[in-house]
Every structure is written in C-alpha cells, then in structure tokens.
C-alpha cells in the first residue's frame, strides 16, 4: 500500500461577499480533488489543539502523525533541524531576528529585509564579540536567510523554563516599545542581556554604517523568540512503520521532515510562493513513491494568497495544485497497486482575515480499498455530510493505516 498526503496550506476559507458568499474552494475548477471526494470519503479535521497557536508548524506536525501537545516545542527547533544545526542536551533554540531599534521602539522586525550576506557578517561578528568578552559564552548565532537566524543557548539548569518563556514575535509589535516586552523572571537575565547588549555590538558595525549611508534600516539589534528545546520525536518508521518523503519549499515543514526521520526532497523550482513549480512537485511526488511508503506534498501558495488577501491568487493556487499535482498523481498511482491519497489544508487562511484561523478544515481520502460516501464535491460545507465525521489531526495516519 502506498500513501500520499497533499497539504494545500491555508486553502479553506470563510464565505466571501465578492463571490456571492462562496469560498475559493467552491469557485475553483478542481476536477481531480472533486473526484477524490466523490469516489472517496470526506469529513472535517482539526489539526490545531485548542491550547496551541494555529501555526503551520503545529498543524503540520498533527498531519505528520505527531500530537503537538506532546511534541511541539517551538518553531526555532524545527528551523534548526531544517538547517542541519547540531544541538545537544540543555540547548534552547531561539529564532533570532535582525531588527532595527530606534528610540526604544521596534522600528523594523526585519531590519529593512537585510540581505543574507550582510546578516551573516553580523551574526559572525556577534559570535566573536560575545566570545571575546565572555570567555566560555554559552550561546552561538547561526546565520539563516535575510533577517531569519537562530541563536542556540546552552543552559541545562534552566532549559525547560527558558523554553516556556513568553517571548513576543517582533512582527507583532512594530512601532511599539521594546522594554516592556523583555520583563522576564531572573532565570532569563542572561538571555535578556544578550539581546540588549547586541545593540552595543552592532550599532557601529561597518555593515550598519554602510546601510545607514545608503538610506537603509540598520540591523542594530537582535530579537529572540519562537524558542524551544529539540522535540524528542520518534521516527515515522518507528511509530508507523512507514518510510517517508517530504516535498515542500518551507523550512518549518522541512524541519518536521528531519525530526520525523523522513527524507526531504529538493525539487528544483519549488518556492514557497505563487510562482512555485507545481509540475515538478507532482513529478517528484510520483517518483518518490518508488522508494517510499508515504509522500507528503506541501504547497504554500494558497496560504500566501490568504495572507495577501488576494482572492484571485488563492483560486489559482487551488486550481494549479489540482491540474499539476492531483491529476497526475491520480493517473500515476494505480501503477503502484493499492494506494490511499488524502487531501487537506493544515488550517484555514481566510481572505477576509488575512491570517490563520483555528477552524476545522475539509479532508477527502480516496483509497482503492474503502467504500465511498455520498459527498460529491470537496469544499468546506459538503464534507460535513461525509462518512469520516470529525477527525483529530494527529490520528490521520492511524486512520489511513487501518
Ligand atoms: Zn499553514
């Protein structure tokens, strides 16, 4: 038996006035997905536990078959996994933004979209600066892309407490005061002082002096958030007996691939945006089934369209997935014998809201061995009549394996 899970990130929506109260899923031309619903089973699925934020990391962890309440520790650790950062016992991994501080305010949460090259120089300099000043310094900066970096801090004694510290994402308070966002308990004093002291280290760095001269935002401070200890996830092979592969353009999902012991497949042209190469993703998915029992295909475009409140792009994203990924899969899968294919969003990203919500999402599963239900098309409402009823995200793989 082969398994395919296609994740249309953020695809489900609320009724939109502009299209007579319909949703993008209702107006999009998607014959392959409708066929999966018509010849398969349908229902609703909740990928986000009530106590956690409706992030793609949490929701996709559910879809990968891991209960986020047991395994989710933060986005920093997942990004570290995708970047191949080695960690050890007592490490806490923070997301580290290069930011612009001005007059005590968060002036820019991304330092004017600083280039990766400039930021790498600054991260390197911070490692030198803190190591020179504090011999035995327990932290290390890892440069990533543009303003997105990591800071790994080793503190065995306080790791669990630091992992739970309420650190505010910098994009959530642009233009607001910084000082009251870092009023932590004393166990976090050192982490706090590293953030504050980064200002001193970076302010007059040649990279920043040059940026100011060019009229750009300087990256004169770092901001830590999204931290956690590395999740102790058993491999998909151990839990489900499945050898898995993952296709995605998004680092967090790649991190889930690493943490679950799946293979991340590099697909040329796979971006995490509207312009992703849908065809290539479809072809790689089909090919990956030769060597794997299960393939996860994640497409970010509908979510990006939701964030951009771009209805046209959202509909187009759903149609592109249908034409270039689902249709070829349906055609190729019978060659592998018995198979099951599940299609679902991780969470809704409604056009009118412009960000993730925590509602249940529609799911359709076609299999060569199960009886279909009576649902004829795939959308937020019709699947409510489906035979799957209401599912919990992290039980999906168990259900597929039944
Ligand atoms: Zn998502």
UniProtKB/TrEMBL annotation:
Pathway: Carbohydrate degradation; glycolysis; pyruvate from D-glyceraldehyde 3-phosphate: step 3/5
Catalytic activity: (2R)-2-phosphoglycerate = (2R)-3-phosphoglycerate
Annotated keywords: Glycolysis, Isomerase
One GO-annotated biological process of the protein: glycolytic process
A Pfam short name: PhosphMutase
Record EC number: 5.4.2.12
Enzyme class per UniProt: isomerase
SUPFAM superfamilies: Alkaline phosphatase-like
Function: Catalyzes the interconversion of 2-phosphoglycerate and 3-phosphoglycerate.
PANTHER family: 2,3-BISPHOSPHOGLYCERATE-INDEPENDENT PHOSPHOGLYCERATE MUTASE, COFACTOR-INDEPENDENT PHOSPHOGLYCERATE MUTASE
Family note: Belongs to the BPG-independent phosphoglycerate mutase family. A-PGAM subfamily.
The protein, known as: phosphoglycerate mutase (2,3-diphosphoglycerate-independent)
Species, as recorded: Methanobrevibacter ruminantium (strain ATCC 35063 / DSM 1093 / JCM 13430 / OCM 146 / M1)
